[in-house]
Amino acid sequence: MEPAVAELQAFAADASAGAERVVVLGMGGSSLAPLVFADSFPGKEPGAPRLEVLDSTNPESVLETAKASPPSRT
After folding, report:
1. Is 17 helix (H, G, I), strand (E, B) or coil?
2. What is the pTM of this model?
């Protein structure tokens, strides 16, 4: 894994450039790890996008999440 760290860091920097948030769409087990990460690392690095988890199929929740910021910045 260590040989891939630089490549993964470069990918993360490129993927998050200009983004204000990252939204993980999942339910149950697929959203547990991202929820733990979001709660465990509240003091994110300056300029890093915030992590949100949408753990619902409720149409109102999905619409609210979609409207929270422009798709081009998510």
Report:
1. coil
2. 0.72
